[in-house]
Design brief:
By secondary structure, the protein is of the alpha/beta class. The protein has a domain of about 100 residues: 5'-nuclease (Rossmann fold, 3-Layer(aba) Sandwich). The protein has 9 helices and 5 strands; from the N terminus they run βααβαβααβαβααα. About 40% of the residues are buried.
């Protein structure tokens, strides 16, 4: 899972989660450019910060094929990633991540993004952010929590 990229393409779940815990600015600090599609913008349903740009894939052929297995937002994000080289997808749904892996696309989840922020010195600790995440409807196992904290040196 390579996280180094100047271009981030986020799915809706990442936007919603980071917005709920008041950490949406992390996306801006980690990527020089942050993109979402119109579908994701509509699913998010909130005013977007200026640093998030809306861009749809120019060829929706891949998106239509992906929609047979994924929701529209994930399908549009994956389709856009084919057009933006050196991008990383932020996907939290397992099915979307599996498809991204099969397609040999670079991806991470929101927790991986937070770990990267710690590793790059953008944040000093991930535990407070993970604690805030636990207060939302976003679920992750104790095992994952322990692994991430260990990787972060906390």
């Amino acid at each position: 899972m390579q996280l180094n990229s100047e271009i981030i393409i986020s799915d809706t779940s990442c936007l919603i989660l980071l917005s709920k815990i008041d950490e949406l600015a992390l996306l801006n600090k980690l990527g020089r450019k942050v993109f979402i599609t119109q579908i994701i913008s509509r699913e998010f349903g909130q005013k977007l910060p200026d640093f998030i740009k809306v861009m749809d894939p120019s060829d929706t052929h891949y998106q239509k094929i992906l929609e047979m297995d994924l929701d529209e937002g994930e399908a549009s994000a994956i389709a856009l990633s084919f057009e933006l080289s050196n991008s990383i997808l932020i996907l939290d749904e397992l099915k979307g991540r599996r498809i991204a892996e099969k397609l040999q696309l670079r991806y991470s989840g929101t927790i991986g993004l937070i770990l990267r922020a710690k590793q790059e010195g953008i944040i000093s600790a991930i535990k407070p952010i993970l604690t805030k995440m636990r207060g939302t409807n976003f679920r992750f196992s104790e095992r994952l929590l322990d692994t991430i904290l260990e990787l972060a040196g906390e």
